[in-house]
Amino acid sequence: xxxxxxxxxxxxxxxxxxxxxANLPPRAGxxxxxxxxxxxxxxxLRWDGPESSADLVAxxxxxxxxxxxxxxxxxxxxxxxxxxxxxxxxxxxxxxxQIQASIDWYVEPDVTVHHAQMKIDLxxxxxxxxxxxxxxxxxxxxxxxxxxLPAPDGGAVWADGGAVAAxxx
Length: 169
Fold this sequence. Notes:
Elements: H1 2-22, H2 31-47, H3 50-53, H4 62-71, E1 79-93, E2 96-107, E3 114-125, E4 128-135, H5 163-168
Antiparallel strand pairs: 1-2, 2-3, 3-4
């Protein structure tokens, strides 16, 4: 009698477990989730402006990002993204990816359109993705190293441990 009950339990529970697993969201830090976040950053940069897109930049590099906006005179009123197209995603480490995108921009009042293959470095932290570096675009932001001194919260910081704070000043 124990055999048929066990078979019945497995027959009922197994489909429920499989159904539950099939409806789970992609694992945190997945390439697809990172790709969507990179596209969200590009969309925010184009339609909302660089100051508004700062919310998507990691807190430890946000001051440097905002400082670079001022240096490049690329605030929300002056930087105009004419076009962008995400191209490729490269996994750099378990918690790091790089989105490569084609981007066209100009900074008013100048109307010269610049074109570049921008690299957006993302790190998965605190349950979501954040921008930690930008290369070859309208706002340069030196990427955090893949491996650096551990931060108090366990995240990576710049190799010298204080470059972000110094850059923001």
